[in-house]
Amino acid sequence: ERGSELSPLLTPLCFPQCAGEENWVDSRTIYVGHREPPPGAEAYILQRHPDNRIVSSKYTFWNFIPKNLFEQFRRIANFYFLIIFLVQLIIDTPTSPVTSGLPLFFVITVTAIKQGYEDWLRHKADNAMNQCPVHFIQHGKLVRKQSRRLRVGDIVMVKEDETFPCDLIFLSSSRADGTCHVTTASLDGESSHKTHYAVQDTKGFHTEEDIDGLHATIECEQPQPDLYKPLGSENLLLRGATLKNTEKIFGVAVYTGMETKMALNYQSKSQKRSAVEKSMNVFLIVYLCILVSKALINTVLKYVWQSEPFRDEPWYNQKTESERQRNLFLRAFTDFLAFMVLFNYIIPVSMYVTVEMQKFLGSYFITWDEEMFDEDSGEGPLVNTSDLNEELGQVEYVFTDKTGTLTENNMEFKECCIEGHVYVPHAVCNGPVQGPLETEDKELFFRALCLCHTIQVKDDDDVDGPRKSPDSGKSCVYISSSPDEVALVEGVQRCVSGRVWHARARPGVSGGGPCAGTLAGDPFKHLRFPLFTGEIYLFCKGADSSIFPRVIEGKVDQIRARVERNAVEGLRTLCVAYKRLVPEEYESVCALLQAAKVALQDRERKLAEAYEHIEKDLILLGATAVEDRLQEKAADTIEALQKAGIKVWVLTGDKMETAAATCYACRLFRRSTQLLELTTKRIEEQSLHDVLFELSKTVLRLSADMQDYGLIIDGAALSLIMKPREDGSCGNYRELFLEICRNCSAVLCCRMAPLQKAQIVKLIKLSKEHPITLAIGDGANDVSMILEAHVGIGVIGKEGRQAARNSDYAVPKFKHLKKMLLVHGHLYYIRISELVQYFFYKNVCFIFPQFLYQFFCGFSQQTLYDTAYLTLYNISFTSLPILLYSLMEQHVSIDTLRRDPSLYRDIAKNALLRWRVFVYWTFLGVFDALVFFFGAYFMFENTTVTSNGQIFGNWTFGTLVFTVMVFTVTLKLALDTHYWTWINHFVIWGSLLFYVVFSLLWGGIIWPFLSYQRMYYVFIQLLSSGPAWLVIVLLITVSLLPDVLKKVVCRQLWPSATERVQVRAGRGSRAGGAVPRAQWGRGALSRGPSRSRRCDRWKESGGGVVSPGITAEA
C-alpha cells in the first residue's frame, strides 16, 4: 500500500512531464522493477530498450576482413596498386603480378594487423566492462549478475568505491539525509566530490524488502549526450561515476548500454590531417601524372617505331593472323596499361607504411621525455594521436587559456571589501578586522561566503579526493569542486578566527549558531536560501558584471572601485549580494525553480527566466579578491614562442583588467607595447565600423614606425564582428579585424564564451594564409577550441581531464609547450620531410632508368631489373635506413634548439616540402638515374668480355645499374645524417651488406621453384670483372658529387640560421668542446633544474618587468 501511494509522487518528483506543455515531447516511460501498472491505469505500452552492453570496438570476427579491406582500399595509393595488380593478372604484362601484389599484400597485412590488434584491445576492454558483477534486487533479495544483463527498470545496489553500471535514478542511500558523494573522473576527469540527493519520497527505503515493494513509474526524456545539463541532475547518477564516502545506494536503471551518457559521448572527433600529409598527397598526384605521361609517350613511340614493317614484324618474330586482325585501339590501350604496370613503381606504396611506423614509434619519444614529467602531480606527457607529430613543428598561432594554463589555478585569499572597508587575513587596511562583527552587513557577508559553496567537510584524514586542511591542528578537511571556494572559506576563517564556519549547515540539517538550516540552493548559480532566526535570505555570489546590474542598494561605487583596482593587480574578484524573502515569496520562488528544473522542453530557457526573475533588487554586501599565481616558467615559454615567430593569443573568460595584468606578468605584453582596444565600451561611443577603420589606420602607421603593439577584444565586440550584416555579409568586418590582428604581436580576448574561443580559432585557421593553429587549455570550457585547432593540447590541471581527453597531446604544465614545439616538433618535421622527399627521390632513381631502357629495346616493355629486385627494392633494400633516420636524426643538438628558438623559423610554413625543394629532389633523382644508365651504357658500349671471354648481357647490365643505384641512394642518406649512433652504422652498412649477400645467394643457386634461371651466376660474374668495380665506384661518386657541391656552395654563400649553428657546432667539436647531444629514450634525457625563480608581475603603474635573477636565453 505504501508503494502504491508513492506511485503518483515519484513521477512528478523524478522526471515528470511538463504540465501545460502544448508540444508533444519524445519521452520514455519506465516501470520501476518491471512492475506493470494496475488495471484501470493508463494504457500499458511496452517499450524496447537496449541491454547494458558497451561496444566501443570497430570490427567483429565476421566483418573484420571485408570492412578493413574496404577502408584500406579507400586510400588512393592502395587502390591504385590494386588496379595495377589486377591489370597484371588480366593482360600480358612485362612484369610478374608478384612485383605489385607482394608489396601491396605486405602493406595491407601490416596495416590490418595493427588495426586488428588495436580493435582486439577494445574488445578486451568491452568484455571486462560488460562482465563485471552488479547487484540486482529481485524478489526482495540481492542477486549478482553480469553488467551486460542489466535492463532498464532494474533496481541496482551500488557499494562504496564501486562504479555505477548504468545511468541510475537515485532512490535511497545509507546516509540518513538521503545524499551520496560521487566522483566523475572517468567522465570529465574531475576528481572533486559532487553531492547528489535521493528522490524525496524514496529516500526512506533502506532495505532490499522496502525497495522491492516500490510501485512507481518514471517519465523521462530520451537519451541525450549532454553531461552538464541533465534533467533532474541531482537525482541522476551517471555510468562511469564512482560512489565515494557512502556505504551503499539504491537506484533504478533509466539509460543502459549505448544509451548512457558516457556511451553517447564516445562520438569520434573529426579527423585532423597534417600539412605534411596534404603535401604527400599533392606530390603523389604529380607523380601519378608523370607516370601517365611516361606510359603515353612510350605507347606513342612504340607505334611510331613499329610503323615500318621490318620493325613491326622481324623475320624471327612474325605475328599470327589473329594478332594482325586485332583492333588497333584495343592493342594501343593494352600497351598503355602494360607501360603503366612497368613504370608503376614510381608511386611509393611503402612510403605510407613507413610514415605510419615513423609516427607511431616517434610518438614514444614524447612520452619518454623525463624533462616533461612533473614530479608534483606525478604526471607525464600523453600522446592521444600520433598523426600530428610533425604539425608541432609548423605552428604559427598559439591560442591559450589563462586560468589553470598560464596560471596555477591555486587560489589564495587576499582580501575582502565590506561596505567600502578592506579586510585581509590577520591584518587591517582602512578598518578593523578581528573582534566582534558589529554590523549586520558584515555578519551577512561572511555567512554568505560560508553558505554559497559546495564544499564538503570531512573528519577523516584518509578521505578520497583532493582536500585541504583548514587548520593543521585539526583533522577535518575541505573537499571542493573548485579551488576558489576553498580559498574563500579558508580566508573567511582566518579573518574571523573560525567563528563563521560553524554556521555552515547541510540542507535540511540544523547547524550551530544562529543558522537553523539551508532551505534550498543551487550549486551552479551560487544561490542559497538560508533561514536565520526565522528570516529567509537569498544570498548570491558572482562576477561583478553579473551582480552590479541586479543591485539596487549598497555602497556600489566604493566596492566597484576596489574591484577594478584588484582586477588591475591581476586578482580574481567576486561580488556578494542578498535580499530578504517573506515566506510567501520564498514558496513562489521554489515553485518557479522546481517547474523550470523538471521541464522536458526548453528547460534551459525556463531556468534562465526563473533566475532572472529571482536575481533582482539585490543589496550589495561586498567583494572578495583571490590570487591565482602565474605558472612556473610561463613567461619564459611565451617569450621563447614569440622569438620562434609564433603569435600567442590569450582567450579567457576573465574581465579585461585581470587578464591584461596576467598578460603583462607573462610577458605577452611589454612596457613598450602599445595596446589597442576593441571593446564594447568603445563601440558604444563609436560605431563598430569607425572603430575598426581607426584601429586599421593606427596599425598601418605603427607598422611603418616598427612599433610593437597588442590588441584587446572582448566577447561582445567579437559577436558584433562575427554577426552577419543586414545585406547578409560579414566578410568586410572579419577581413578588417583579421588585418588588424595580423599586425599585432599579441592579442588578448577576454570575456570569451567557450564557443567564441572556437570561433576565434576557426576564423584564423580559415584566413587566406591558412596558418597552422594550436590551442592549449585545461578545462572543459577549452574543449571546443582544442578540437577546432589544427593541434589541440590539454593541460592536465585542476579543472579535470576533459581537455586532456579531447586533445591530441596532453602536458602537465604550460612550460612543457616550449620543448614540445621547439624541440620535438622541430625534429619531427625535419625527419618526416626528409623521409617523404627521399622516398620520391629514390623511386625516381629506380624507375627512370627503366624508362630510358625502352628507347634501346624497341619499346617492347622489356624490364631492366629482375623480378626479385623490383619486389624487394622498397621493402628490404632501402627501407630500414630511412626509417631509422626518421626516428633518430638530430640535425642540431637538443640543447641548441632549446637555447635558440629562432631556429624554428627556418622550418616555418612547410619550408622543407615546398615546390622548390620538391623539384630539386625530383631533378636530383633524374640526374642520378641518367648517370646510372648512361654511365653503365657508355662504359660497356663496346663488347666487353670477362676474364673467361663471356659477354655481358642485358641482365648483367640491369644488375649493374641496380647495384649502383642501391649504393648511391643509401650513401646519399648517410651524407644527410648528422647524428650518428651505432644503430645508424648497423642499419646503413647492414642494408648494403644484405643486398650483396642476397644477390650472391639469388644468383648463386639454382632455385627449383623458379620457372626461369636468368639471374644464375649474373651477380658473381659482374663482381669478377675489374671494369665493373671501377664503374660502380666512379658512378656512385659522380652521382653524389652535385648534391655535395650544392650543399657546400649554399652553406658558404646563403647559409640559414640552422646551418650557421651547425658550422659553429662543428668548429666547437674540432676544438674539443663539442656540444653535448641528448640521447632519445627513457632515462636518457637530462633533467633541468627542478624550479626556476618566478618572475614578478608586471605592474601597469610600474611600466616594466621586475625579474631578479632571470636572464633571457640567447
Automatic annotation (TrEMBL):
Cofactors (names): Mg(2+)
GO molecular function, a single term: ATP binding
An individual GO BP term: phospholipid translocation
Topology relative to the membrane: Multi-pass membrane protein
Tree of life domain: Eukaryota
Ranges annotated as biased composition (Low complexity): 1067-1078
Keyword Methyltransferase found: no
Top-level enzyme category: translocase
PROSITE patterns in the record: ATPASE_E1_E2
Subcellular location: Cell membrane; Early endosome; Endoplasmic reticulum membrane; Membrane
Catalytic activity, as annotated: a 1,2-diacyl-sn-glycero-3-phospho-L-serine(out) + ATP + H2O = a 1,2-diacyl-sn-glycero-3-phospho-L-serine(in) + ADP + phosphate + H(+); a 1,2-diacyl-sn-glycero-3-phosphoethanolamine(out) + ATP + H2O = a 1,2-diacyl-sn-glycero-3-phosphoethanolamine(in) + ADP + phosphate + H(+); ATP + H2O + phospholipidSide 1 = ADP + phosphate + phospholipidSide 2
Annotated transmembrane regions: 282-305, 336-355, 868-888, 918-940, 952-974, 986-1010, 1016-1041
Record: active site: D401
Domain P-type ATPase C-terminal, first and last residues per copy: 804-1056
EC number: 7.6.2.1
Positions bound to Mg(2+): D401, T403, D778, D782
GO cellular component, one term: recycling endosome
SUPFAM superfamilies associated with the record: Calcium ATPase, transduction domain A, Calcium ATPase, transmembrane domain M, HAD-like, Metal cation-transporting ATPase, ATP-binding domain N
PANTHER family: PHOSPHOLIPID-TRANSPORTING ATPASE IH (PTHR24092:SF33), PROBABLE PHOSPHOLIPID-TRANSPORTING ATPASE (PTHR24092)
Similarity remark: Belongs to the cation transport ATPase (P-type) (TC 3.A.3) family. Type IV subfamily.
UniProt-recorded name of the protein: Phospholipid-transporting ATPase
Organism: Ursus americanus
Lineage of source species: Eukaryota, Metazoa, Chordata, Craniata, Vertebrata
Gene name of the encoded protein: ATP11A
